[in-house]
C-alpha cells in the first residue's frame, strides 16, 4: 500500500523527497475532492493531510478522521500549522467522553 | 410514555425476558466501555511520544528543506523529485479490541536515501532527505496511535450512547411493563376471588351447592 499527502507545496515537496507523492489543492472543497479521490484508490493505505489544510476544511474533516476503513486519513503538522492533531484529539476526548489526556 | 402491553401472562414473560436481556446487555456494554477506555489510556501514552517525535522530526526536516527548496529553484526541484526514491510502501494489519479493529502499521522506506549533490541541489537538500528518513520512521507509530485513538474514541462514544439508551429507556420501560402487568393481574385475581366468594355465599344462602 502507498501513502499520499494533501497539503501545501512545501509539505508535498518534503514528502516527495522520500518518494511519497501528493496533491496541493487550492480551496477547502478541492482538498475534500483530493481526499475523496485518494479514498477510492485501493492501493492507498494512508492519506496525510497538512494541518492547516485540515483546519480550513473545519468540521467537514472530522468524518475522515473517524473512518473505520482503509485508507486512513490523518492530520500531520505542516509549515503553517505545527499543532498537528494533539489538541483536536484532546478536545474531542474531553468533550465527548470526559477523558483527559 | 410507552404504550402499555395487554396484561397477559405471555406479555409478562416477554417483558421479564426483555428486562433480563437489557440488564445483561447493560453489564456487558459497561465492561466493553471499561476495556476500551483502558486501551485508549494506554495508547494515549504512546500517542504523546509519537506526536512529539513526528513534530520534532518534521520541524527539523522543514528547517533544512525550506531554504534548500527556495535556493534550488523550480527546475532543480523537478530534477530532484524526478530522481526521487521508490514509493514508500506500507503494510497495514488489523487487530481486534473488543470487536473494534485497530491498525498495526509497518512502513518500508525502500532503498537508500537519495543524495542530490549531482542534481545541483545544496547540501541542505541532502540534510532534508536524510531527516525525512527520520520523519517516515516516526510516522509508523504516529499513524498507528492516532488511528487507534480515533477508532477507540468513536467506539467508546457509540457504546456510551447504547449504555445510556438501555439505562434510561429500555430498562425503565421493561420494569414499568412488568410492574403494570403484575398489578393488573393481581387485581384480576382479587376480583376473581371476590366473585367466587360472593357466588359461594349466595349459593349457601339459597341452599344450592357451589362447584
Would you mind describing this structure in some detail?
The complex is a heterodimer of chains A (101) and B (211). Chain A is α/β, with parallel strands linked by helices and 101 residues long. Chain A has a single domain (2-97), classed as Rossmann fold. Chain A is 43% helix and 19% strand. In chain A, helix 1 (9-16) links the parallel strand 1 and strand 2. In chain A, helix 2 packs across helix 3 (51-57). The N and C termini of chain A lie far apart (32 Å). Chain B has one domain (11-194): Helix Hairpins, CATH 1.10.287.3240. Chain B is 75% helix and 9% strand. Chain B contains two helices and two strands. Chain B has helices spanning 9-82, 123-206; strands at 89-97, 100-108. The longest helix of chain B has 84 residues, at 123-206. The two termini of chain B are 44 Å apart. The model of chain B has no long low-confidence stretch (mean pLDDT 86).
